[in-house]
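Appendix B, record 7
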Amino acid sequence: MEAEFLSIHNSLPDKDLAKHFSVYVSTIEKWRVRLGVKKTANRWDINPHPRGALGMRHSDKARHAISKSASAWWEALSDEDKNIAVLKRMKTREKNGTLYPSRRASSWKAGWREIGGKRIYFRSAWEANFARYLNWLQEKGEISEWEHEPETFWFDQPKKTIDGKRLGGIRRGVVSYLPDFVVTELPGSLTYYEVKGWMDAKSKTKIARMRLYYPEISLRVIDGKSYADLKKKMSMIIPGWEDGTKKNILPEKCPNKSVQSVKSKLCEQRTVVTITEHK
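Structure tokens (predicted):
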């Protein structure tokens, strides 16, 4: 599949590539990062300008006129129409993979890591360590697959709840939610995870709306208590675990059976971590 991807990734729009490989659009760029390639062709290279204007530039006078016209159009919109326009832009950026920037300012050990052969930009050391835990479970055969920031869930469409109540679409404020991870369990079911040490008001709203608009989705929150439980049980077992200083607590593989320590015994066991359910 990698050979096929490398041969066509630069000749098709990401949306078509995602459909061809049956993956999310955001996954296409992740594959490029992992394989060390870049998309050099833009849409005009693939489909030349139909009016022969490829490479042309607007004059300063034309740009000023366009800007003035766009501003007048925006000011004439009602608040509802503005919300719809903003939402449409957000969805377009989500499809293009630009809604969630890879490099956000952060003091929580954000940065690139390579885990399980995947090079991913994690927004915190907690996220990175949880990814290591999921990769450890996958290697042990406890789960089928895991993926980081797989898809965005939107709250803009009206829905009916299980008890028959009608929910209106949300057009402003918290209108979408991107879970940190999705895990494909061995039976094939999906479980989504959110790693959140501190729940601010916006985070609480996202999770509450997610449960309200997508009650069929299994979502679990790894909060401070759950993460502490995970760290206590796994930090001395999983290779590369970050202890707050970006140093490996266990830099290499788990000790083998010849090493008489508690570690080697724990490496052979499935560790169950208590997960807090947020209502």
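Remarks on this record: Confidence is low (pLDDT under 50) at residues 103-107, 246-279. Residues 1-75 form one domain.
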